[in-house]
Write a structure and sequence with these properties.
By secondary structure, the protein is mostly helical. It has nine helices and no strands.
Length: 212
């Protein structure tokens, strides 16, 4: 659960710190975080490190989230590997490489549909792990992804769309981890003596008292 909570902190902190280090010509509203991690970025190791650590947190969370479905854990592994792939294939000074775009699309799609695979079909479950709750969150994530894709086509707030989408989506594994942990808490057992007393019923009067 710690790794799930660290993921949004590391990613958000990385792009905020890296943004401060960029020249005045860089616009966080219009330009993506990949630019800061690319070959044209200033102190690109800050953003690259944030992406690597976030991907690593996804992998650790997937390994420790034993209460979730196997498909959900596998999809989180895909998102984590995609993050590592993004960091390993930085953008050149101009444009983007096909490998970087492929990793980016894979990671964005995996984390967007991930909430749908966290739904539980049986057993005790909170609202966010039910079919309706998971579907609602998935719809929000897909809508955010659609907005992000629309901004890639000469949009004026591409950087804002990417930052908002990534910050929201990286928070969800932590919320799911907390919900899964709460559902796995053991129900406190009743005291054996008290239970035995209730089964035995009230004490009977002694024979000496009945003779009187």
């Amino acid at each position: 659960m710690v790794s799930a909570g660290l993921a949004p902190v590391l990613l958000t902190g990385a792009y905020l710190i890296a943004g401060v280090l960029q020249p005045a010509s860089y616009s966080p509203l219009r330009e993506t975080i990949s630019v800061m991690a690319g070959q044209a970025g200033t102190d690109r190791w800050v953003m690259t490190g944030g992406i690597v650590l976030t991907g690593g947190c996804y992998l650790v969370t997937a390994a420790g989230l034993t209460g979730a479905r196997a498909a959900a854990r596998a999809l989180l592994v895909v998102a984590g590997l995609a993050g590592l792939g993004i960091a390993a294939s930085p953008d050149p000074v101009r444009g983007a490489t096909p490998r970087h775009l492929a990793w980016t699309v894979l990671g964005a799609a995996a984390i967007a549909v991930w909430p749908a695979f966290t739904a539980r079909r049986a057993g005790p479950r909170p609202l966010i792990l039910g079919a309706c709750g998971s579907a609602a969150v998935t719809a929000v994530f897909v809508a955010l992804l659609g907005w992000l894709l629309a901004e890639t086509r000469d949009g004026s707030v591409l950087g804002l769309a990417e930052r908002l989408t990534s910050s929201i989506q990286t928070c969800w594994p932590f919320i799911v981890a907390v919900a899964v942990r709460r559902t796995r808490r053991p129900v406190p057992a009743r005291a054996p003596a008290a239970a035995a007393g209730r089964r035995a019923g009230p004490p009977r009067a002694s024979g000496r008292g009945q003779d009187r």
